[in-house]
Specification:
Layout lengths: L10 E5 L12 E8 L2 E6 L3 E5 H6 L12 E4 L3 E11 L11 H4 L1 E4 L2 E4 L2 H9 L5 E11 L2 H7 L3 E4 L3 H4 L7 H8 L16 H4 L1
Length: 199
């Protein structure tokens, strides 16, 4: 295995039960970039308490979508940075032709943007698939491959239906099942007890 581990993006990373980090416990990450220098992606199943409307009010952008839509915690890196993942299928064309340059296609029919002008256009007429992420998940050179080799992550092909899953609490199980893995077969993980507790 080379230093990039032969990982091709986009792909999904599903945390195994041994991952105890509160940021990534039972998380599903959409990995969008991976090379010898490092990796980044978005945690798909961590809705925040902040509504999209609240976040956009701070930017003076009106939100015409579902008032119950919440922003998601994309990861612990740069939590003040907003990114939008959205559907751009044949049935849902871009609101402006210039977005072909500013909103990158990350998967067939799905684009991502970090431009405020794009956000304003999307907020005015939100597509059926729309997610606002605050922050992102990032790994330094070789770090992700190391974590995969110690079985922290199961690498799963992207299933587009899962990217805008309306039940984030079920996403971990759904992602494993889509990869043919029964969540019940994964070993449960119990943190090691400290010396004081074991006596």
């Amino acid at each position: 295995m080379n230093s990039s581990g032969g990982i091709e993006t986009p792909t999904l990373l599903v945390a195994t039960p041994q991952v105890q980090d509160p940021f990534f416990d039972h998380s599903v990450v959409l990995l969008l970039h991976h090379d010898d220098e490092g990796s980044f992606g978005f945690n798909l199943n961590r809705p925040t308490d902040l509504s999209v409307q609240e976040v956009l009010e701070g930017l003076e952008i009106p939100w015409n979508g579902d008032p119950d839509s919440h922003a998601y915690f994309g990861g612990p890196v740069q939590p003040q940075l907003g990114s939008v993942l959205f559907l751009n299928s044949e049935n849902e064309p871009l609101p402006s032709p210039r977005m072909t340059a500013t909103a990158a296609e990350v998967y067939p029919g799905i684009r991502m943007t970090q431009h405020v002008d794009d956000l304003a256009l999307l907020a005015g007429e939100p597509p059926s698939g729309f997610r606002l992420y605050l922050g992102y998940a990032g790994w330094g050179a070789g770090q992700l491959v190391e974590e995969i080799l110690r079985n922290d992550w199961i690498v799963v092909p992207v299933v587009s239906d899962l990217l805008f899953c309306s039940e984030p609490q079920s996403l971990w199980q759904l992602a494993l099942q889509a990869a043919g893995v029964d969540p019940q077969t994964l070993p449960s993980w119990v943190p090691e007890q400290s010396q004081g507790e074991s006596n």
